[in-house]
């Protein structure tokens, strides 16, 4: 027997009600039964997105909705602005490039957040920029961007503001309408406590103005077709029915909890995790923009970061994430997103302490767990 | 209580083992546990596709894989040949159009199959055609195309042969390699007895020759990226993990059954359905190319086809499909695809008899059920 504990920033663990809802006999998607479910989830997503605009459900990974945002807003030869301070921020420019769209790129050091003034400068220098593509929580570095500040800048520009909130939505605050976000993109397997396979996106009136004037190189990800279907509470193509049913269950749980309580819980888990890491003498990757959805920690000198993650997983059943691309082996990431509670974080820290000890790292055993306990006690 | 019976051509009913497999705790996709599952399903798909080539798993509806085939084989300004004799055949040209690819279209009367000679003529007239796009089983009309004959023609041409086997694969014979099919596309919610959300495609060496020389307008559906990932038994983007796990279960069942037995079962169910319809005095839409995956039946004069389907579903819990587009209200479709057995077909015919009687259609009550029973008895 090997009991497993999942602390990765997507997929995140699923509540049992959500898991079991997938095992119900399948129903056809063009029936009143499904239409009712679909209507409920589309309305429920608006609450999570904090928007009055339509929320679309696509059957794809989150990247599919990112592509939908890019190709519906811009065409070959157009220019867009992208911000990249990690693997997922880089994806915006990669998608643009695949379609012959010019991407002006703001490079940010991995572990740092973009300075909104950089965006302001670029937008002023080139008023023809069709859209600005940013990331709420950069999963690869555990950094949160100040979307509210960027929103104030974008409001005065022609460009639409697009936010990749794949990691983050339903975990940390994302006021789509209040912050002036035109397209907010998300995925199912993070804060929404679902398996991967669904992507979501909200689209503002300003975004539609640009989309309507653009000849999108898109079929499966064509938002005009999606809108035509959504107006009848339908999807343009066969949706992932079981995942939509699971979404209904997850939204029910989130509605009961309330967004504020959800954000407070994530904050508490994040503070406990960060405090614990410091108590173990470990250094966080991000000092002043650390995300409350996932914590990125530098691997201490002399320790093999990949072996650390592998041992925790293969030996003790605790799956955390390693570093990606240029951070491979240099950081590890503990997620506190979705269906995760205090004792799950304690379990993760405890296992980390065990393996770090075995690998020869020197610290006071139990110091991380105790530091987290103290944070949790203060929250009572 | 209303017990439900699903006889639609996608989604099709799911075996309980497949349903329940989705309810297992989620695992991370970049782990040895998932890699093992993914390896198994990629190998298992080759058996179903009857191919030695790589089989790709995409997280999307079947349309996503259709788009992947089009945009990876051809670019703006290129010419492709498409065959359309129904709603899904039309999709090939629609996708091409969205990307500025010229589609030469062979129009076939709905309910008929294309004459392979038409394709031969077109290919000879224009040797620059990049690919021919056809449909194994046109779900909207219940017609099967002679892919084997088309394959012989395509073998001698530059063009790649692409087959939409979304409805059909795992239900009727589809010899991808032996028939010379370069890209075979399928979906999860038909013969493979899964929920919708996954698309599959095999890609031949000849197809790769064209793909490698093409600058695809694609990111999420870029096959070169998919190939790079597949070589490490990985996916380019987060896959729909629970559906991949369900696929493993479905393939296990199919392996146990054996392809030949599966095809024989579908054939038996189709013959019984067609015989029953004739016994009720009903006319089949397709006379000489009727599919063994789904049967399309003309609604008899004086009967409201939409009301018939609606009453069977809302009053008696039996969901069959109506007609689409130009066939709306004019036909109904009974699927005998996937996890469907003799008694499910009997249930569907019985309910049809009941509602037809209530709607005033004159026939000998029980004649359809008896005709099907006779076919089933002969099979023993």
Describe this structure in words.
The structure is a homodimer of 380-residue chains. Chain A is α/β, with parallel strands linked by helices and 380 residues long. In chain A, the strands form four sheets. The first copy, chain A, has a seven-stranded mixed sheet, with helices on both faces. A three-stranded antiparallel sheet of chain A has the order 11-14-13, with helices on one face. Chain A has a two-stranded parallel ribbon with strand order 1-12. In chain A, strand 6 and strand 7 form a beta hairpin. In chain A, helix 2 packs across helix 9, helix 10 runs antiparallel to helix 13 and helix 11 crosses helix 12. The longest helix of chain A has 21 residues. The first copy, chain A, is globular. The mean pLDDT of chain A is 97. At the A-B interface, helix 3, helix 4 and helix 9 of A face helix 3, helix 4 and helix 9 of B.
């Amino acid at each position: 027997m090997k009991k497993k504990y999942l602390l990765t920033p997507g997929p995140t663990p699923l509540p049992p009600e959500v898991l079991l809802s997938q095992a119900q006999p399948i129903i056809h998607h063009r029936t009143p039964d499904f239409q009712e479910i679909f209507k409920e989830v589309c309305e429920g997503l608006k609450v999570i997105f904090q928007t009055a605009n339509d929320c679309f459900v696509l059957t794809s990974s989150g990247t599919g909705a990112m592509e939908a945002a890019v190709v519906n807003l811009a065409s070959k030869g157009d220019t867009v602005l992208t911000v990249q301070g990690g693997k997922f921020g880089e994806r915006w420019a990669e998608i643009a490039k695949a379609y012959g769209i010019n991407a002006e790129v703001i490079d940010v050091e991995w572990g740092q957040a973009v300075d909104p003034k950089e965006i302001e400068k670029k937008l002023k220098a080139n008023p023809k920029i069709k859209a600005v593509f940013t990331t709420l929580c950069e999963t690869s570095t555990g950094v949160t961007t100040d979307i509210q500040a960027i929103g104030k800048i974008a409001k005065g520009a022609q460009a639409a503001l697009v936010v990749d909130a794949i990691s983050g939505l339903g975990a940390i605050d994302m006021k789509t309408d209040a912050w002036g976000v035109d397209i907010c993109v998300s995925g199912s397997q993070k804060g929404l406590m679902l398996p991967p396979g669904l992507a979501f996106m909200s689209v503002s009136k300003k975004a539609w103005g640009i989309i309507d004037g653009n000849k999108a190189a898109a079929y499966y990800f064509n938002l005009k077709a999606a809108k035509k279907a959504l107006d009848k509470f339908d999807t343009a193509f066969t949706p992932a029915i079981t995942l939509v049913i699971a979404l209904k269950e997850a939204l029910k749980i989130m509605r009961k909890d309330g967004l504020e309580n959800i954000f407070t819980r994530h904050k508490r888990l994040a503070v406990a995790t960060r405090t614990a890491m410091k108590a173990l003498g470990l250094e966080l990757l991000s000092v002043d923009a650390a995300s409350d959805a996932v914590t990125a920690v530098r691997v201490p000198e002399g320790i093999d970061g990949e072996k650390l993650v592998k041992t925790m997983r293969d030996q003790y059943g605790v799956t955390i994430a390693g570093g990606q691309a240029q951070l491979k082996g240099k950081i590890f990431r503990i997620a506190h997103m979705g269906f995760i509670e205090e004792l799950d974080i304690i379990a993760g820290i405890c296992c980390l302490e065990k393996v770090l000890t075995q690998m020869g790292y020197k610290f006071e055993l139990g110091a991380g767990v105790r530091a987290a306990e103290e944070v949790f006690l203060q929250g009572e």
